């Protein structure tokens, strides 16, 4: 467990007012926890930008009736099988499917996988949730 360190921050009062209102809406009970999370978020972004070993989830929504789409989505996933831990397919309704692909590996490889899936014709939405493996994050 790391030692707690206190430090002072100077900022404009209207900026602090906005920040306090923002974190209150997010259910934070104090500034320290909100600032800790902001710092952690920045450090996770840094892990991704430095192509570290990371983890994350890719989501895609598509109409499985679209010609060749399912084959293309599967082909891409097989090409990246080394960085895919699991995938879950949910049939949202008669037409639409939702897929969650859980990944672990080099950040750039996961980003390329995400971009390839997003670019498949008739994929209605693609998203990525960038997470950390937690090793370098106190
Ligand atoms: Ni389906």
| Fraction of residues in helix | 25-40%
State the helix count: 4
Number of domains: 2
Q: What is the CATH homologous superfamily assignment of the largest domain?
A: ACT-like. Chain A, domain 2
The secondary structure category is alpha+beta
Secondary-structure arrangement, i.e. CATH architecture of the largest domain: 2-Layer Sandwich
CA gyration radius, whole angstroms:
19 Å
Arithmetic mean of pLDDT: 95
Low-confidence stretches: none
Strand segment tally:
4
Walk me through the topology:
Layout: H1 13-25, H2 31-49, E1 53-63, H3 69-79, E2 84-91, E3 96-106, H4 107-118, E4 123-131
Residues 64, 89, 91, 97 line the site of nickel (II) ion.
Describe, in short, the structure shown.
With 138 residues, the protein is an alpha+beta fold. The protein is 40% helix and 28% strand.
Plain-language structure description:
The chain is α+β, with helices and mostly antiparallel strands. The protein has 2 domains: 13-49; 53-131, ACT-like. Chain A, domain 2 (Alpha-Beta Plaits), CATH 3.30.70. The chain has 4 helices and 4 strands. It has helices at residues 13-25, 31-49, 69-79, 107-118; strands spanning 53-63, 84-91, 96-106, 123-131. A 4-stranded antiparallel sheet has the order 2-3-1-4, covered by helices on one side. Strand 2 (84-91) and strand 3 (96-106) form a beta hairpin. The longest helix is centred in the first third of the chain and has 19 residues, at 31-49. The termini are close together. The model has no long low-confidence stretch (mean pLDDT 95). The site of nickel (II) ion (NI) has 4 residues, from strand 2.
């Amino acid at each position: 467990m790391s030692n707690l360190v206190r430090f002072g921050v100077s900022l404009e009062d209207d900026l602090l007012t906005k920040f306090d209102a923002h974190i209150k809406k997010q259910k934070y009970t104090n500034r320290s926890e909100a600032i800790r999370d902001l710092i952690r978020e920045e450090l996770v972004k840094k892990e991704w930008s430095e192509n570290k070993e990371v983890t994350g989830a890719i989501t895609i929504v598509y109409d499985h009736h679209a010609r060749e789409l399912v084959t293309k989505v599967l082909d891409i996933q097989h090409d990246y099988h080394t960085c895919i831990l699991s995938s879950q397919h949910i049939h949202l309704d008669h037409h639409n499917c939702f897929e969650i692909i859980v990944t672990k590996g080099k950040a750039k490889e996961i980003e390329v996988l995400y971009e390839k899936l997003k670019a498949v014709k008739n994929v209605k939405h693609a998203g990525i949730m960038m997470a950390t493996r937690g090793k370098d994050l106190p």
